[in-house]
Structure formats: C-alpha cells, structure tokens
Amino acid sequence: MLAATLAPSATLAETAPAQVLAAVARICAADLAPAARAIDEGAYPADILRKLAGVGAFGLHARADGALTDAIEAMSVVSQTCVATGFMAWCQNTLAWYLMMSDNAALRARLLPKVVAGDVLGGTGLSNPMKAFFGIETLKLRGTRVAGGYKVKGLLPWVSNLGPDHYFGAVFALEGREGNPVMALIDCADPAVTLKPCEPFLAMDGTGTYAVQVRDLFIPDDLVLAHEAMPLVKKMRAGFILLQAGMAFGLMRDCLALMGEVEGQLGHVNRYLPMQPGDLAGEIKALEAEVMELCATPEDPSTGYFRRVVAARLAAGDACVAAANAAMLHCGARGYVAAHRCQRRLRESYFVAIVTPATKQLRLMLDQLPA
After folding, report:
1. Domains and CATH numbers, the chain
2. Mean pLDDT across the chain, nearest whole number?
3. What is this structure's pTM?
C-alpha cells in the first residue's frame, strides 16, 4: 500500500476498480472513439478528460486500497481507443503521483483531490530533468532562493496536457547548489508563464503540448514538492515509468484486434507474415505479467528492481512498434487509407517509443546502471 493516499471518504474509494474500468470503457465508446481522429489532428479533449476523472479514472492509484495496476489498466482501456488521450491520462495520473510521493502534506491535501477529480488538469514537465539526470541534457530551468520561495526562469521545449489554467511538475537547478535541484509545481495561470504552441506533430497533436517560457516566476514554498529533488525523484521514478505501460498495452491490444478484424478475409495470405495474432497475444501477456509484478513495490530503492523497470519499459516500447507494424502488414492497403485507425496506430506507436524515457535513453540507462 502506498504511503500517501486520498481521503477514504471520497466517493471513488467506494467504487470498485472494476466499476471504474467499466465506466471508462463506456466513455471511450460513446465519447472518445468518435473524437479520436480530431484529437490526433489537434483537438484537446478537456471535456473527455474531465468525464474520465468524474468516474474515478485518475484516482485509482491514490485510493487507500489503490494500486498502480488499476491505474495502468484504466489507461490501457483509454489507449486502446486513442493513445493521445491515454498519454494525457498518464500525465494526469503522474501529476497525482508527484503529489502522492511528496512530503509536502499541505500541498498534497490541497491539490491531490482536485487532480483526481479533474478540477485541476496538468502535466509532468520531467522530460528535460529525466534526460539531465543521465547526462543527456542540462536542466533548462534555473532558480534562486528568495523570501518565501524561489524565482525561476528558463524554457522547457515540450510539456504536455497543458492549458492556461493547468499545473505541471518541474525541476530546476538552484544557483549556488549545483547537483541538488528543487522540484515544484508550476501554475500556468501565472503571468510569468507563457505557453507557446509547438510545430505540428506526426501524430497526437491534441495533447496540449507546448513550449513553456518562464520569466522570473515566483514559486512559493507551498507549491514546492521537494526542496531537495533527488530523493523524491528516486522515490517516484519507478511509478513514473511503469504508469506509461498503459499506453503500450492499450495500443498493442488494438493492434491485436486489427489483426483479428481482417483474419476472415486475409488470413489465408496473412499466415505467411512473421508475427501472427497468437504471437502478439503471448507478448502482451508476458509484458503485462512483468509490469504487474513490478507494480507491487514501486518504492523499492534497489538498483536491481529499477533495472527491471527500465528493461520492461524498453520492451514495451519495442513491442508497440512491432505490433503496429504487424497490424499494418496484416491490414494491407485498407490500413493505409488515411481514415483507417491502423495508420494512426502505427504513428502512435513511435510516440510510445520516443516519449521520455525514450528507447535510446532506456538503453543508455541500462548501460549506466550497475548490473
């Protein structure tokens, strides 16, 4: 059981996870499926995210009886319809995860219920820090200590699930204390924060992704997740990575469904392709088993455990690309039509492989982590 949980009096604590998942599936069928193409092309689905929050989709890991496995399963249901929305669900769940892992009890009590309920939407902001911690980049935000908080400036090129009233987690280097950064929440409504639209993406344009310019932003102590970020990062990093499995599982399940949809018409020739539905089903089952086992101890500090987390995330990204490629080959020309979801799945699969921590970073991490 996780140390920091949502107050058990909340309605979601009275709803069985299976009921939450059933409600999520209904929203995906009724609301998300018709909107998936528009989201892929740039429509930010704030209403759908709030509907998902309303049935408890973003609080499954924050309950007194909660587990990461339940949160991952909810995201996989969403991602089976739309990985863009599954990614935003990961952003929302990860924002809650930051609060759950933080020692700032007052901040947790104030914001965690709002994040879970969808009253506050937001992102993770840790793409740059996760790279910086492994020597790929330097921290792009820098701060100085002032009375009652910090003054922060810099530019983050990619932060997702944002809007003018959203929050996101950030890590900034502290002047005079190199190597010991601070982790805090940033309020996008602050006039010192500017959201700049990014260039169009290959897929998933409706994810609320912006470049974030911060100019002398005052971050009060009551928005600080950890005045010394590294212990918090080490505590929450496994959950941060494991939660991404929801995107992978959902996408792979739909690729399996796509292969099944053409079996009757094309099975006589598709049987010559190297990946068959049974192969993919077995791979999904094996990956799910490994991730579910790892989810039992997300705060395990051992290097051996974290290596398994990294290896599982690497395998999930590789498997997504392979599954989407196989689905495209099974569907053939019909999957190559712009309106067919098969080609969207192929484009989405590359996102799973390149979102932080990306395939190449995961391989670097395995190389740097002690065996």
Report:
1. 11-121 (1.10.540.10), 127-230 (2.40.110.10), 244-368 (1.20.140.10)
2. 94
3. 0.95
